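Run log // design_07
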């Protein structure tokens, strides 16, 4: 009685089966190649050149290895395995789905079984080993299919790695200052399989949040790391649903620079980074989606904080002699005065005090600031100092 093996049933076959099959290999190979050409649409073309050699080599190697395994099961499949891994890789490179190759394997198994079964019956091979021959053929084909699937998956991973790297390089190129030449940009975009949009915006987030944000955004958004920050190039940022998508994708903080043409990407990136810096010191909120266009004045004051501090020191010097509480009250009154042009009623409403209290504060403010409240240049600098938050 023959011993069976679940994963390698050919181990239960007598070596005599190999002797019966071997003389028929050339004929079996030719029939398999011809049948594949007829039945698998993607291979329905003259089997010539590199493509034809690949098909014939794959079929021939498969049959030779199958016979070798029957004759000596310890040979193992590792020796010719790379052929079928490479066939899987080749399918991806040719732009075909793996289904075509797997269909060819099934055709090959069917033809091989029919031809081998006929040879074995002519040699009066008993039913039990004949059944095991069938099981061996289809188990062997399953192994080849698994090898090719592995090669196909590996090629997909490699292709995606190349694509991701090219897109990272493209994002870095877009935000470069000065802006890249149009020809260089379009060549890089073609290599990255990315369409250059008419308008885009550049976002920034922490490096640790970049992967999570990217997963929640459409595939056309470019992502990379620049100077320790996550960088996102967002095509058509004003398009339907885009802001909502960015809001949903936002990590603790996602800064978005202003939209513009590709040549303006560097400036958009610079403002997005400015938002991150301002948020880090509480000059801006530290969560959600922050759009630079909504915070331009705050960013101007933040980036010019050295000069702003000098202005504040000069314009707010009269408040230095006051207590902290009184100084805060006078800063509030001065800003309200500038906003409402000294209208006591409007100021009172903003500060939530009685109009008479507002008038008292205005009088005290005039004592402290004097002509600053009347001089346009002084008023401008005073408002900068008050809005900057510098005490």
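design_07 sequence
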């Amino acid at each position: 009685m023959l011993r069976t093996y679940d994963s390698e049933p050919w181990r239960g076959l007598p070596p005599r089966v190999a002797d019966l099959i071997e003389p028929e290999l050339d004929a079996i190979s030719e029939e398999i190649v011809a049948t594949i050409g007829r039945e698998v649409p993607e291979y329905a073309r003259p089997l010539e050149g590199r493509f034809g050699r690949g098909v014939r080599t794959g079929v021939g190697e498969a049959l030779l290895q199958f016979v070798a395994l029957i004759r000596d099961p310890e040979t193992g499949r590792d020796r010719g395995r790379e052929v079928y891994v490479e066939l899987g890789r080749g399918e991806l490179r040719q732009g075909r789905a793996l289904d075509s190759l797997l269909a060819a394997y099934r055709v090959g198994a069917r033809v091989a079984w029919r031809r081998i079964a006929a040879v074995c019956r002519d040699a009066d091979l008993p039913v039990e080993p004949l059944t095991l021959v069938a099981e061996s053929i289809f188990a062997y084909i399953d192994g080849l299919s698994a090898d090719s699937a592995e090669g196909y998956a590996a090629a997909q991973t490699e292709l995606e790695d190349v694509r991701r790297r090219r897109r990272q390089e493209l994002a870095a190129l877009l935000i470069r200052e000065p802006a890249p030449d149009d020809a260089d940009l379009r060549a890089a975009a073609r290599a990255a399989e990315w369409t250059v949009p008419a308008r885009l915006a550049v976002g920034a987030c922490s490096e640790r949040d970049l992967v999570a944000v990217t997963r929640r955004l459409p595939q056309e958004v470019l992502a990379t790391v620049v100077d320790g920050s996550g960088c996102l190039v967002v095509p058509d940022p004003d398009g339907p649903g885009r802001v909502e998508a960015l809001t949903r994708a936002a990590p603790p903080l996602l800064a978005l620079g202003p939209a513009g043409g590709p040549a303006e990407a560097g400036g958009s990136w610079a403002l997005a980074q400015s938002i991150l810096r301002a948020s880090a010191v509480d000059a801006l909120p530290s969560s959600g989606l922050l759009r630079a266009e909504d915070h331009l004045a705050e960013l101007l004051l933040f980036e010019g904080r050295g000069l702003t501090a000098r202005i504040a020191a000069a314009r707010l010097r009269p408040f230095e002699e006051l207590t902290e509480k009184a100084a805060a009250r006078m800063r509030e009154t001065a800003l309200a005065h500038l906003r409402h042009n000294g209208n006591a009623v409007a100021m009172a409403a903003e500060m939530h005090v009685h109009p008479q209290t507002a008038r008292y504060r205005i009088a005290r403010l005039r004592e402290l600031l004097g002509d600053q409240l009347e001089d346009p240049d002084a008023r401008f600098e005073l408002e900068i100092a008050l809005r900057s938050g510098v005490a």
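The beta strands are 200-206, 222-226, 229-235, 253-256, 288-291.
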